[in-house]
TrEMBL record, chains A, B:
Name of the protein described by the UniProt record: Transcriptional regulator, GntR family
Keywords from the UniProt entry: DNA-binding, Transcription, Transcription regulation
Keyword Transcription among UniProt keywords: yes
Keyword Transcription: yes
Organism listed in the record: Paenibacillus macquariensis
Alphabetical list of CDD domains matching this protein: WHTH_GntR (cd07377)
DNA sequence: CATAGTGTACTATTTAGCTATGACAGTGAC
DNA sequence: GTCACTGTCATAGCTAAATAGTACACTATG
């Protein structure tokens, strides 16, 4: 329902990722109506202008569609959604791998660390059937 | 010699990580003298005030020590350096694992993806003998 | 038609980050 | 002492991000 904001990154970008995550995981489905600018602003306690900027960026990336006077909707193109998911996962992966290498970790170290971290953490909000590639 | 700056994150934080990485990987060794405010400002094409802020933060984290009139030096406490390394690696790991789970990936997926990514990438600037835990 | 909800636009203000510039103080070498 | 380096401080200005508030245009409903 709310977001923990990181002060070192623009809010509108963090909300963008928040929405993208909802779309990618199926919380928001293709064609679904999105909360209005004013609704989301109220829910997240953020100024409507900031939400408006968030949505403009999402529309520029063709993730949402705007119907003036009606509202905004998640794109119906599932291929676009999969593309976004791959982008986001790829960005996370690159950041992690490159970061670990910059810290001096060897390839095998990295795999081991991930494997260990994963065995110690429970399968959280696993939604069977929504898991993609 | 230079940094690719991310516009969505304060420069002084990025330079902090840049210095920390050099210390953690041994490029800068315990007790080493660090580039002066003006030197680093010139090298990175950044205003000296911004570098000054970077160093103040690093000193606050007890990673560097200042001797007025002389310059700044990497802390001699190797335990502190190891601590920083663990912090940075842990932050990277958390961000990655949590991010992937938020995207809907299962634990085993995450491990597989990392394993595959790592096999496809060469062992870059591996510095044998500097690899810690 | 009027209404309520939608997206959109505009101006003004505040704040953090960064820059530009100058000045002062401590240290070691000459 | 002088010089050249160091860290430090202070002032001013610019920009992007975010806020606050108002207003306008479009759409469906009744």
């Amino acid at each position: 329902m709310s977001i923990e904001f990181d002060n070192n990154m623009p809010i509108y970008l963090q909300i963008m990722n928040y929405i993208k995550r909802q779309i990618v995981t199926g919380t928001l489905k293709p064609g679904d109506k999105i909360l209005s600018v004013r609704e989301l602003a109220a829910e997240l306690q953020i100024n409507p202008n900031t939400i408006q900027r968030t949505f403009q960026e999402l529309e520029r990336e063709e993730i949402v569609e705007t119907r003036r006077g009606l509202g905004r909707y998640v794109t119906s193109e599932e291929s676009k959604i999969m593309e976004i998911k791959k982008e986001m996962a790829g960005a996370l992966l690159d950041q992690f791998i490159n970061g670990m290498k910059e810290l001096g970790f060897a390839n095998q170290d990295i795999v081991s660390i991930v494997a260990e971290a994963v065995t110690q953490s429970p399968e959280l909000g696993q939604e069977r059937g929504v898991n993609p590639t």
